[in-house]
Amino acid sequence: MISLGDWDEILAPLFADERYQKIRSFLKREYTTHTVYPDMYDLYNCFRYTQFASLKVVLLGQDPYHNEGQAHGLCFSVKPPVEPPPSLVNIFKELKSDLNCPIPADGDLTKWARRGVLLLNTSLTVRAHQANSHAKCGWAWFTDSVIKLISEKKEHVVFLLWGGNARSKKPLIDREKHLVLECAHPSPLSAYNGFFGCRHFSKTNAYLEANGISPIDWDLTR
């Protein structure tokens, strides 16, 4: 596997685990016999772009976008020329309301990743046009383990848990060491039930600064 920088040592016990070997065997079959997103070379982009040493925020998604050209290994993110999906549009609306950041021209969140925001889906792959189709292949064990490792080995990380799936991960996090911010999912079906007005972006930065950590530049236009 391609090196993931300083994550290699952190994740080595997971990659050596027999449960991960079962995931690999499953994925080999799936990528051979079906269309699977993201591209296998983008599978671990969240770790590649956000090194463990510089990680400040964990934003949890559920599973990758399942339509062609959307998923590229970062939750909620799409590369141009793909139009930002509805949940991402709502994220940008809240960002504008909270911090007055301009709404970007595209939905690529790579800049957030490079600035210390781990954009982690709880499942890292999906079969084309079949949401949650890989949810039971073992990814939950893997990503739960990643969350626990971050909780154990870091301090003062902000965990953004939007929606029921993400909020179910709260017990994995040591809330004496970290800040957990939770609310409704930004989906159009639930955004008005508490996502809009949550002000998680400014709350994240206030917490980081209070603990002597430089804030996230959430503005994707610069």
Give me some keywords for this one.
four-stranded parallel sheet
Write structural notes for this entry.
By secondary structure, the chain is α/β, with parallel strands linked by helices. Helices cover 36% and strands 11% of the residues. The chain has helices spanning 7-16, 18-33, 45-49, 86-99, 110-114, 139-153, 164-167, 200-210, and strands spanning 36-37, 57-61, 117-121, 126-127, 158-162, 179-183. The protein has a four-stranded parallel sheet with strand order 3-2-5-6. A two-stranded antiparallel ribbon has the order 1-4. 37% of the residues are buried. The model has no long low-confidence stretch (mean pLDDT 97).
Outline of this structure?
The chain is built from eight helices and six strands.
Shape: globular
Q: The biggest beta sheet, please?
A: 4 strands, parallel
Oligomerization status of the protein chains: single chain
SS-derived structural category: alpha/beta
Mean pLDDT comes to: 97
Q: Note the beta-strand portion.
A: 5-15%
In terms of topology, how is this protein built?
Elements: H1 7-16, H2 18-33, E1 36-37, H3 45-49, E2 57-61, H4 86-99, H5 110-114, E3 117-121, E4 126-127, H6 139-153, E5 158-162, H7 164-167, E6 179-183, H8 200-210
Parallel strand pairs: 2-3, 2-5, 5-6
Antiparallel strand pairs: 1-4
